[in-house]
Design brief:
Number of helices: 39
CATH topology of one domain: Adenine-n6-DNA-methyltransferase TaqI, Chain A, domain 2
Number of strands: 31
Distance between the termini: 42 Å
Structural class: alpha+beta
Largest sheet: 9 strands, mixed
CATH class of one domain: Alpha Beta
Strand content: 15-25%
Oligomer: single chain
Length: 967
């Protein structure tokens, strides 16, 4: 492929050289060089630039921009070429910006800035600027800055450089179709040096290597603070709710205006005219009134801040904001910022709220967000996966537009609307495909014929109706409900132009945006109005914070039809435990209304149960949730419910953390309805944004009474685990176990510890001899032990007593023999320690009551225990894996009887020998001694494993299963 491509490019080079004077003349246009050279160059790289094979305009990997400019505009709005990879025709891999050869690219800041701007807004990482004579790879990871635009150059070539095949190969193995599909370009971008902070302008719009979402979020946070302060100064009677709402609406309008400009739906001077008006705020309000007449929707809908009595933003301040957002001053280009990236920005935006303290506006995290550790946006590939496997099958079954129009899909914790954008996009794609397959139906339905691309396109009216027919959302936060509507409007207008928008508005005398107030609602999806019976009437603020919601009343078209309920519910519910102290009313309500929860209420589990009540029979649920419900011993009720009331179709396991948050999640694709015989479902793996098949399981294989579930274990492993369990007792049955001492926590201990005590840590001394004074005892922590060995070296001490935050009972540490188990590990690591050694809280202490300590130690450190532990908690290989106390208590020891007493005694002896061998290896001074003891340890380890296998009566096949899993 490389050789063939090089031959074709060499011919282009020779053609250019032969007539260079003509091609370098000002009269030779950009359109001509594209047709004569650039098109052919990338065709040689394996791309179907001319669409000789990819005829369907909706399924073309190379989108070539016709030389379209807005009337009277000097700024081109779209890159000349956008390269994608099937089947994802929305995500740009890289752009190519073309210029005519008479320009000297290396000296043209504007061209570098323009190319970087396209790539940065679409997050491509790199893009290409070329006039064929010159070929420049541009770094698009930086926030574009015109003053330093020339520094974005990564690599520069002239066309004659490509006569050398090795030089050409550098470009080929980055930008050819084959290379991009193989991931070469992404790997190249990942290995580029990190963007450095850039000199030049700083402030709202300029800076270092910030990503588009981080940068724009920071920018709109600045605007929000400025606007809130200005609004409060002029209108001091506003409460926090009103202030937040007015500020949010203003930002929504500004962003929407920029979107309309960049999409060429409105003239590009909209914000420019506002910024340059004598009174920018008044001009802004006047434009909002004009746009409301044309567009409708929540964005420009009359609001209390539009009234004459409302004192808006300071005119000078608002002029600066509008000027910053003017397309001539900003690096942000909403034509290229994907809608899902805007969703990411808004999702994080929604995690904060405005408050007033001492007359100053402040932005702070909402309490529930702070409790959850932040806002974590669902990656696009996860949204796409969920939509594909919930809405996708519904569309296949419906087959016809009349049936598709009846589908009702919801996200009942919709946030910024990312899942609903995905749902809406899937529906639009289905309609486009259907109508291009059936042209007569397209014409009758009101589609428009796109003469230029030879394809039927949906009218704005049709896209409005699809949204109203199919898409529903609920969120407890009014801001979120508003942002969801804005996001859906942006999606609706994504492919529109000024011509199509005006046609809708003028020819049909209809507003461009639909009224979504009946589809997107604000309310608490978990709590109905019956909670009001138990709330005090006078506490309006508390009632408002609970924000009860009735689905049947809010969505009569969904719940007053024969099938009664949604056909699919998708989303990413909040992962927050319900506080017993702060949320007594809610807990009492959940206890009364939710039948499939254990004593500990977690919002994501409540949302799973609530979704079942809201789904129609055979409806689909697609959610990304923590995986704790599978194996936590306290979640038996939800397991029983999900196993018995749903037909499982897919579980996508996150092999790595799907979110930035430290939480293990997976995707559930379930169908509401009782099992009827065998039901096979797919377990799949998500890693590095790629999805692969793992195994297929029968749902009937799991314990219908709510026992723990391991979807990563094979059926053979599960069967073996059950066999081992029948011959075993748990550690809980024969030992006492607890977690070690927690030395410090503000407010705990006697007397209560101060912040200074927690900071100074006076009760713990490391890397020193025993301190003087009373109560100093040896301190053991997780890093000071391993299997059968302690590395404590008389240099770690704790002053033990009631002044510690959680000292535990003193008699625990006076026990003569104690097994300790490391907490931070993906398998069981245990050893034996003696009397008066205090253990930190990253260790579990196991004191045998009816079993020999050394026998238990040998079994715990054996491969059969590694195998069994994986069945209880499959975290093998995970960086932040943790052994939980509940897991320790569920670990198994073989039952000892007369028949296997000899094997039991042998394990006691082997453990004794292993403890000594490990100690000998630790103190070995010569290499030969170390080798000798290590070989002895390996022999003993194998002997222990074989003896435990014998105690369980395992055959060769079963032993092979354990060896394979234990590694």
């Amino acid at each position: 492929m490389l050789e063939t491509a090089h031959q074709q490019v060499v011919q282009l080079i020779e053609d250019f050289k032969t007539n260079a004077d003509y091609y370098l003349s000002p009269s030779y246009t950009e359109a001509a060089v594209r047709q004569d050279f650039i098109d052919k160059f990338f065709t040689a790289l394996g791309w179907d630039v001319a669409h000789n094979h990819q005829k369907n305009p909706y399924q073309q990997e190379v989108k070539v921009e016709k030389a379209q400019r807005q009337e009277g505009s000097q700024a081109q709005k779209r890159a000349d070429y956008a390269f994608h990879l099937a089947p994802d025709y929305r995500t740009v891999q890289f752009f190519v910006e073309a210029k005519k050869p008479s320009r000297t690219l290396r000296k043209n800041q504007a061209d570098y800035f323009q190319t970087a701007k396209y790539g940065w807004n679409s997050q491509t990482g790199v893009s290409v600027l070329t006039d064929f004579e010159e070929f420049v790879i541009i770094d698009c990871r930086h926030k574009p800055d015109f003053d330093t635009a020339l520094s974005t150059e990564i690599k520069y070539y002239t066309y004659t450089d490509f006569l050398n095949q090795d030089t050409f190969a550098e470009v080929f193995w980055l930008f050819s179709r084959e290379a991009v599909a193989a991931g070469n370009l992404q790997a190249y971008i990942s290995n580029l040096p990190k963007p450095k902070g850039k000199s030049g302008k700083q402030g709202n719009l300029f800076g270092g290597g910030a990503s588009i979402d981080d940068s724009f979020l920071e920018y709109i946070d600045e605007i929000r603070l400025q606007m809130a302060q200005a609004f409060y100064t002029g209108n001091p009677n506003l409460d926090n709710y009103q202030l937040t709402e007015a500020t949010q609406r203003t930002i929504d309008r500004l962003v929407f205006m920029r979107f309309l400009e960049d999409k060429q739906i409105e003239p590009e001077n909209l914000l420019h005219n506002i910024a340059n008006a004598a009174k920018p705020w008044k001009k802004f309000i006047a434009e909002c009134r004009r746009l409301d007449i044309k567009y409708n929707g929540i964005v420009f809908k009359p609001h209390f801040m539009d009234k004459d009595g409302f004192l808006g933003a300071d005119e000078a301040q608002f002029r600066e904001i509008a000027a910053d957002l003017d397309h001539t001053n900003t690096p942000y280009d909403f034509n290229y910022i994907p809608i899902h990236i805007l969703g990411n920005i808004y999702e994080r935006f929604l995690g904060k709220v405005i408050s007033i303290q001492d007359g100053k506006a402040l932005i702070e995290q909402k309490p529930e967000v702070r409790k959850a550790g932040g806002v974590f946006y669902t990656p696009k590939y996860i949204v796409d996966y969920i939509v594909e496997h919930t809405v996708g099958p519904l569309l296949e079954k419906a087959r016809y537009p009349s049936k598709v129009a009846e589908l009702k899909v919801a996200d009942i914790a919709c946030g910024s609307g990312s899942f609903l954008i995905g749902v809406y996009g899937k529906l639009l794609d289905w309609y486009r495909s259907y109508y291009n397959q059936y042209p007569t139906a397209a014409k009758e339905a009101g589609c428009h014929w796109d003469e230029e691309n030879g394809v039927w396109v949906l009218s704005i009216r049709q896209k409005q109706q699809i949204l109203l027919d199919n898409v529903y959302g609920v969120d407890i936060d009014m801001q979120a409900a508003e942002v969801t509507q804005v996001s859906l409007f942006l999606k609706l207008l994504e492919d529109e132009t000024m011509v199509t928008a005006n046609e809708m508005n003028v020819l049909f005398a209809e507003k461009i945006l639909p009224d979504l107030s009946g589809n997107i609602k604000c309310g608490n999806a978990l709590i109905g109005y019956d909670i009001m019976d138990n709330l005090p009437d006078f506490d309006r603020s508390h009632q408002r914070s609970i924000n009860p919601f009735e689905f049947e009343q809010a969505f009569p078209k969904v719940f007053r039809r024969p099938q009664k309920g949604f056909d699919a519910i998708v989303g990413n519910p909040p992962y927050v435990k319900v506080s017993s102290k702060e949320q007594k009313d809610q807990r009492a309500y959940f206890e009364q209304h939710y039948q499939h929860q254990n004593y500990q209420y977690d919002l994501y589990l409540l949302f799973l149960e609530r979704s079942g009540a809201l789904l129609a029979e055979n409806g689909k649920i697609g959610m990304i949730v923590p995986n704790t419900w599978l194996q936590s011993l306290t979640y038996t009720e939800i397991r029983r419910y999900l196993l018995n009331d749903y037909r499982w179709q897919k579980i996508l396991h996150g092999k790595e953390h799907i979110f930035d948050a430290v939480v293990d999640t997976h995707v559930l694709i379930f169908e509401k309805g009782r099992l009827n015989g065998k039901n096979l479902f797919d377990v799949e793996m998500a890693e590095n944004c790629q999805i692969s098949s793992y195994q297929r399981l029968d749902q009937n294989h799991f314990d219908k009474q709510g026992g723990i579930i391991n979807i990563l274990a094979t059926p053979e492993e599960t069967t073996l685990f059950e066999k081992i369990k029948k011959q075993s007792i748990t550690l809980k049955d024969c030992t006492f176990s607890t977690v070690g001492v927690k030395p410090f926590q503000t407010g705990k201990g006697k007397p209560p510890q101060s912040k200074e005590t927690v900071k100074d840590k006076p009760y713990v001394k490391e890397d020193c001899p025993k301190p003087e004074g009373e109560n100093w005892k040896p301190l053991m922590r997780g890093s000071l032990m391993n299997k059968y060995i302690s590395y404590w070296n008389e240099d770690s001490w704790i002053q033990y007593g009631e002044w510690l935050a959680e000292p535990r009972q003193p008699e625990i540490f006076s026990a003569t023999e104690k097994i300790i188990v490391r907490q931070t590990a993906d398998r069981i690591i245990a050893t034996l320690i003696g009397k008066d050694i205090i253990c930190r809280d990253n260790l579990y202490i196991v004191i045998p009551t009816t079993v020999n300590a050394k026998f238990a130690l040998a079994v715990l450190n054996s491969k059969p225990t590694d195998f069994c532990y994986y069945q209880l908690n499959p975290e093998s290989g995970e960086v932040l894996a943790q052994v939980k106390k509940a897991h320790v208590e569920q670990l198994l020891l073989p039952k000892v009887n007369q028949a296997n007493q000899t094997l039991h005694n042998q394990l006691v002896k082997l453990a004794d020998q292993m403890l000594q061998a490990k100690q000998n290896a630790k103190t070995a001074e010569t290499e030969s001694d170390q080798t000798f003891y290590n070989q002895h340890i390996a022999f003993l380890d194998d002997k222990i494993n074989q003896t435990v296998y014998q105690m369980y009566g395992l055959n060769d096949e079963e032993i092979a299963l354990i060896e394979k899993r234990a590694g």
